[in-house]
Structure formats: C-alpha cells, structure tokens
Amino acid sequence: MQWLYLHFPSLQLDSLLHQQACDQACVLIDKNHVVQANAEARQLGIKIGTGLAQAALLCAQLKVIVYDAKQEQRLLSQLAQRLYQTSATLYLDAPQGLLLKTSDMLRLYAGLASFWLQLQQPIIERGLHYHYASAHSPLAAQILAKSGNDRLLNTQDEATLLLAHLPIQYADLEPKLTLQLERLGLNTLGQAQALPRSALGQRLGKTLVTYLQSLDNTSAPSRPSYQPPERFRQRLELLYEIEYSTALRFPLKRLLDDLEAFLTPRQLQAAGLSLGLDYREKPAEKVHIGCSDGEYRAESWLNLAMLRIEQLQLQAPIVAISLNTKGQTPWAPLSAQLFDTQGGKLTPGQLISRLQNKLGEHAVQQVYLRDDHRPERSFYQAQPKANYQEQGAIKALRPSLLLTLPEPLHHKPNHQWCILSGPERIQSGWWDNVSICRDYFIARNPMGQVCWLFRTPREEWFLHGYFS
Amino acid sequence: MALQLTLLLMFFDQLFLKVDHLSTQETRLPPLSKTLGRVCLDLNHKKRQTTVYIYSIYGFLMALLQLHQLEKERLVWRARQVTGPDHRRQSSFYPALDKHLQGGWPQAGLVELACGPAGIGELRLLLPLLTQTQSRLQVWINPPAQLNGQALAQHGINLSQTLLVRCQNPQQALWSAEQSLHSGCCSHLILWAPNLTAPQAKRLQVAAKNNQALMFWLHPQAEPSTSALPISARLSLVPQTTGLSLTIHKYQGQWPQHPCQVSMHELWPSLATPTPAATSTSNIVQLPTPVR
Predict the structure, then answer these.
(1) Which of A4, A13, A46, B264 could staple B243 via S-S, CB 3.0–4.6 A?
(2) Is there a contact between A342 and B165 if contact means CB atoms under 8 Å apart?
(3) What's the average model confidence in pLDDT over A268-279?
(4) Residue of B nearest to A442 (CA)
C-alpha cells in the first residue's frame, strides 16, 4: 500500500486543550455553527454542525472559541514538521489532513506496522484525535481515512472492496452530486463504479468521472510535497489568558521543547530567541533572549528566558505567545579540559548570557582600550565581544578608578595635601573639538586617598580619579 | 576526659560486642558537634544507662577520628601548631603581608576589606595577585567609579578575562556575585557593597569555597562589620604614607595579630614613600670600616 492518509477532525481544539487542563465542554464555532467539539461537549449532545444557540442551550457553561483557519493551517504544518523526521514525503492537505507516501519508507522501517508505530508517537504526544487509512491511491486513502476506517490495509483488493461498500455520503463529493447519485439509487461507491463511465459523464458531469478515475490513480498529487522551513518559528495560542509573567513558564516550555526537537536533528544552535507576547488589547511585544555562546537545549533556554521574563511588566493579559530564532549557527561542542579539576559548570559565555538576561544587556561590560591620550577617551566600557582585541596600554601612571565627570575642587589643594608627582601636561584633541589642556598631579589628601587632580589654564582644580 | 572515657571503656569491656554492632549499624557518622555535645552531657550525668555511655564512647572515638580528618584538612587547628606558611594559600605578592598571613590570601573564600574612602590603595593591594592568576574570569561588581582599563592593562591585567557588572540594586549585585561564583569560571571576584547580612555572607562564602574562587568584599566603612560573619577573613585598611596598614580582625587558621605594614614603594615608587624601617638601623649592616 503506497499511501497513508491522516485526518485530524479536531486539530485546533485538541491542540488548545492539550496540556492546558480543562474538564469543561469546549466547542469551536465558525459562522455560528459548531465545527469542533471535545468529548465533554459531545456527551452533552452537541454535534458537529449544531447551531451556537442550540449548543448554548444544551450546556450553560459551554466554552466557546472561535475557529481560526489560519491557526489550524499553522498547526498542521507544525505537525508535518515533526512527522517529517519519520516520513520523507509528506503532502499537506489543508485544513486537517496529511498525506504520506509510505512506499519509500517501508524498507527503512521494515514494514508498515512498525512505520505506523513511529508515526503514531508524536501524534499521541500532542493529544490529537486522528483517523487514518492506507490505500493504493491518495484519494482512496483520503476517503477511507475520513470515513473513519482506521485500518492499515495490506492489498489493493481490500481497499477496493472497502471502497465499493462505502456509502455515497462518505465519498467526499459535492453535496449536490451526492444527492443526484442517491436519487439515482446509487447508495454505495461500488454501484457508481460499476456503471459505464461515459454514460455517467454524460448524465452527471465530468467531475464524477475524474473523481472515479483518480480513485485508482496511484501517482503522487501534482502539488509540491512538504518542505520543512529553514528557521524555527512557532506560535502557541493559550486557552486561558496569562496575567502573571511567571505563569509563562509552562507554555514557554512547550515551545522550547519544540525548538529543541527542531534544532537537534539539524545540528544547529540558536544565538538568540525572539519571544512574541500577544496582548489582549494592546499591540504585541517582542522580548529578546540572548545566549552569546549559542544553545539548543530547551532546559538552558528556559532558565535564561525565565530570568528575562521575571523582569517583565505585562501590559495586558497574554493570549498567545510565539517564538522565533535569531541567528542559527551549526552546533559546535565546547571543548573542556579533561584533567581540569576546577572545571566549571558554565562557560564564561554562558555566565555572561545569564547575567545579561537578568540585569539587562548593558549591565555586563568589558573594558576596551583606545589609542587616545585624553583620559576619558583612552578606554571605554562595552558589551563583551566574542573575540577580544588586545591593545597596548599607555606607559604613564594612570589611576585605577576614574570618575565619569571630573569633580571641581572648591579649594585649591593646600598644605595638607601632599603632591606626590606632577605636573603631567595632557593637551590633545584639537581635531575633534573636544580639546583638553590640563596639568595633572598626583596628590594625597588628608584622608589618605591618592587622588589624580588636574589644573586647567584658568587655574581651576578638578579631581579626576583615585589611585585605588 | 579521655582518661575517664578509657576507664569507662575498660569497665564495660564485656559490652564491646555491642559497640561493634552499633558501628556496623551506623552508616553515617553523627555530626561532630552533636557527638561531642553528647559526650560532655554524659560525663555530667554519670548515672545514665550503660547503653548511652557506650554510644558516647563510640561517639567520642568517632569524633576523634573526625577531628583528625578535619585537622588534616586544616578546617580545625590547634593554637600551638600554627607555624610556618600554609601551601594552600595564594601569595599576595607583598612579602610582608605573606609573612603576616602565613602564606597569603586564602585559596578560596570570602575576604572582607574595610577600606574607608575609596582610593587609599585597596586595589593596589589586590592588583599583584590579580595579575598573577588569570586563567579564569575576574569579575568586578559595582566599582565606585569607572574602572580605568589603561591602569589595569599597565599592571598586566588581562582585560579579556575581566568582566564588569553594574547592578541597579544591592540584591542584584549579590545575585550576580553568587551566579559568577557558582559558574565555576570565575577565579576572583571583587564586590563593592555597603553591607552583608550573615546569611548572605554565608551563601557567598560557601559558593566561593565550592568553586575554588576568592572573593573580596570591599566596603566604605572604616571598621569591619561588628557582627561575626561566617567568612574566611576580615581586615581593615588604614592609609599610610608608605602604603597601607592592615589590621587583621579575623583570619581562619590563625590568631589575631598586631597590624601589618604593607609597603607599596617597590611596586608604586611614585605613590608611596619608602618605609622608614628600610632606612633605619635594623636592616643596615654596619661595616667595620667605611667603604668608598
């Protein structure tokens, strides 16, 4: 059997309810009609196609969610992304179906049964309801799956036999055509297949003939097969609104697990994540979570993300979160010393990322030197870079602590000050309009501090630093 | 006390089997303080049951063993045995201070330096140490002014291994310090913070000890904190024309001593005047005949 079709009748609802504990009757509505309902709702008598008013009458505490075709499409491609690890050829059949070519994979998995076991696992993990069927042609598999066949057939004959007995309502034809066939007394698909095609075509139109032909057409659909995306991008709708930032942990964990599952087989790591928070009534916010060394494990990312999230002030309740990667690079394992007894738990890069996520990016700095004689400009503090450029230092003695702004001294240093060295004239910077002309002295004040003072040409005295 | 216990042991020698039984049952040794406490208690109340004595004898023997182990690790020391430098210390590269501290700074732990106003030479005290050991990161948290890269580079500090952290509030500074120590990639950490409570100091001390890091806590008070903090050392610095005068209030493994004069003239000739001791008669050998 070449083709396997998977049908997810309540994809959006199942994904919403999964891992978000809910024992309430829930329905998805589209144009005032129920399109998906959970088990609790079905128990109360709510069926697919029931009007909203009737459903509300059946259950007063009904949770009503609006059906979103786009979201369902997104969920389907997320699922395809996961199943792509098991099956090489996949076709999306929006909004709720996936078509898999099994013939390529049977040699790898040694039989349809074990292949199916592998496929089932991620679907069950996601808590999805599903129907499936295998058949010789894509259309046959689709019809059998949608009719709830749920069997793996071994031969084409079994499939044709099942199809022949399939009631015409399940044949997935246009309602008008179905009605016409029923009026002709053709109640099963087999009866229609038995009639001469040309006569059928003349009476009921070309659509039916093409349909019957494609039932036996074993070739692949003409549309392109599924190609997994290059970058990770995922969105999670929340069943309940989140009002406290720490409650984001659990939904975020789900997204990060998916991220790990995305990155690991590709041998990639992400240097940063962009977490999108969709507020109920405010514009969405983007939060950047950085990791300078690059990381792919969900647990490490979660720790970093929580440091960042704890700082957040939510502007409004969150209804959905999304996650994108920023900068995917090939995974490079960090080498560690085998005999280093002091081997740390973190690398410097990881420590820096952790501090940056908690304190903000500008709180963690390194000191860089610059070729300039003006003390304020001879060095600068900036964020740590991956490769540090060494530069030679000035030979003259400089204070280890430098005040950001020189402090004016109200009194000229008197006899209680002890001048240790000086003056050292620094006159520079005429080319960029920040020219200085200062005579620097090193002096010890009565408190014992060794200060770096300067005198301007106008005989004003300033304190500029300490030889700490 | 030991004699009394030995006598007791002889008296109850028919019960040795029971002692053996106890020792096989005990999988984890009771904490030292607890067993010692039990021994003392039982000595005071001699009329207790024999089994209690047995337990206390066993406990005392175990405690002796533990004591020996702790002594080997230099966690417990005898006052009469404090002699000679300890090789498990890192040199401060000031010979006078090394001699005074019997080998230098502790290998790991938290050291409190009460320096008073900034700029009296507190970093000059640490710079020689920092330049020598740069295999791991050196983290500076909340310095009172900008760290001048030129000055640090002049003294041979590897700026690529230097990390500067600026925190908005003291809580964040302590968090950063603890995280840096726990990361295991930080060898020295210098924190400027006004005060630490005993639990905070303990956490930092444990983090530093477990990760082989030495942390200096600098604060602007002239006197060290009065409360007995569970840290490795507490020193206060007083500026001198020759350098610094260090008062050691607490130093794990040795007695408090008279203040120590650290001369900075050799390393910073223009910032400190030479020690008068160097020119005084004590170091000068009088030759019998004048040499020209």
Answers:
(1) B264
(2) no
(3) 91
(4) B271
Query: Under a CB-based contact definition with an 8 Å cutoff, are residues A439 and A423 in contact?
Result: yes
Q: A373 or B225: whose pLDDT is higher?
A: A373
Residue of A nearest to B156 (CA): A393
DSSP 3-state percent helix, strand, coil across chain A (nearest 5): 35, 30, 35
What is the rounded CA–CA span in Å between residue A309 and residue A305? 6
What pLDDT was estimated at residue A99?
92
Chain B: give the shortest CA distance to residue A369, in Å.
6
A355 touches chain B (CB under 8 A): yes
- Which pLDDT score, from 0 to 100, does residue B111 have? 93
Using the beta-carbon criterion (under 8 Å), do A467 and B119 form an inter-chain contact? yes
Q: Check residue B138 and give its pLDDT.
A: 93
Q: Which residues contact A361 (CB under 8 A, 6 or more apart)?
A: A290, A383
CA-based nearest residue in chain B for residue A385: B160
Out of B146, B167, B183, closest to residue A404 by CB: B146
d(CA B187, CA B137): 6
Q: Do B167 and A359 touch (CB under 8 A)?
A: yes
Contact residues, chain B, for A390 at CB < 8 Å: 159-160
pLDDT (0 to 100) of residue A349: 86
A397: closest chain B residue by CA: B151
Residues of chain B with pLDDT under 50: 1-52, 278-286, 290-292
| Average pLDDT across chain A, whole number | 87
Q: Using an 8 Å Cβ cutoff, are A296 and A263 in contact?
A: yes
Residues 6+ apart with CB under 8 A from A376: A402
- Three-state SS at A325: strand
Which residues 199-258 in chain A show a CB within 8 A of chain B? none
Using pLDDT thresholds of 50, 70 and 90, give the confidence band for residue A164. confident
* Residue in A344, A366, A398 closest to B163 by CB: A366
Helical H segments across B73-121, by residue range:
95-100
pLDDT given at position B200:
92
Token pair listed for B67:
């004591």
Nearest to B167 by CA among A286, A77, A270, A355: A355
**Regarding predicted confidence, which is higher, B55 or A271?**
A271
Structure tokens at A309: 């999230």
CB-based contact (8 Å) between A364 and chain B?
yes
Cα B244 to chain center, whole Å? 20
Candidate from A351, A393, A447 with C-beta closest to B153 = A393
The shortest C-alpha distance from B251 to chain A (Å) reads 24
Buried b (16+ CB within 10 A) or exposed e, A415-428: eebeebebeeebeb
Q: What is the pLDDT of residue A172?
A: 82
Residue A45 predicted with pLDDT over 70: yes
pLDDT band at A409 (very low <50, low <70, confident <90, very high): confident
